[in-house]
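Our preliminary data section would be incomplete without showing what the modeling component actually yields. Below, a chain of 381 amino acids is followed by its predicted structure, encoded as tokens that our downstream tools consume directly.
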Amino acid sequence: MTGWQVVPVLCSRGGPVRLPREAAPLGRRLPYRRARGEGPPGPTPLLDQVRTAGWSLEFSGWQQDYLGDFLLGLAAAQALAETGDHDLVYRGRRSGLMRRCSLPVDVVHHDGPASVSTRTGDPVRVIAGPPLRLRLPGESGPPPHAPLWLDHDDQDVVVHSALPMRYYLQVEQALGVRLRHDHAPAPTFSAAATVRPRHVVFVATTSSHDVKQYGYRGFAAIGAAIAERAGTDLEITVIVDRRYVAEARAAFAGVAEPVVLAGIDAADCVEVFAGAELVIGNDTGLTHLAALTAGADGGGPEVIGLYARHSYRKWTTGAARHHAVSAPLAQMLALADGDLWLDDVDGDLWGTNATLGVLPPDVIAEFACLLKGERCSGTRR
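Predicted structure:
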């Protein structure tokens, strides 16, 4: 992003975002200069409460139901965990996945609402859920979503737009003390697998098949274009919903003989992602999970999310290897920090500029090869 400009297709690298002031998106000024080492003005009563009584982060609504919302919301648990040495426990349906989590949690399978909490009697309750903002004790009338924070540093602005850092900074300000992470605070998920050269995974699942699906033929075309640029055959894995297995196999005919995984559990996807050099997927929870995967070597795949109807700067882990290719509407939403559902915006008004179909496979393939150093090399950066 070089300024207030929307282009037909935007390829954006992941990691921290620092921009000239005149190019910054809409957001709220962080009340201290964090990039210069400053922090909040001092401890608040809430810090003493969570250190003494412990805390319970409870997931509801979207954060309970959708994997992506849950993964990004775990950054709040990371922030609260930095306040003391309490033993932690996760209760919820995603027990297999949470056994891989970098947060040091005991795991209890539970079919009700999910939570991460300290093992204390009467903890401070923090609610994670709509309206996409943490509800902390003592707060009233929260804004409709977690704000984008702008950290002014002379002529530049450090843009904290990824949802994990928004939640993390909200907790930091509520506690009144500076926390450890400078960016990408969401917990990671460990795997035993190591990278296999030329292994590319396509995440073709989505919670909104009609508007957030790039399409199996589109993914196959990306795979063919990467193979042509790399000058070698690829090992391809495609993750699909159960009812689309035949469609996925047909789309990749003539490109490769893919491994098609249907209905695979998120915990098992971590091993699949750890074995890949590259993951390309719809803007969905499994794509976020790929960016949070830590393989046996400590690294993970380069990940490209495809965005049309959500801000590519907001719905991301913020990790250095979590990149984006965005349609015009996704760019507009990033600049304005808007949201189709929260702001009651009809995405159809923007026609094809609000669809993944405007993202050419060749452009995505070229971006992928640039991320991997011109060819799929079998190494990670």
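The CA atoms of residues 48 and 347 lie 45 Å apart. The chain has a mean pLDDT of 90. Preliminary results of this kind motivate Aim 1 of the renewal.
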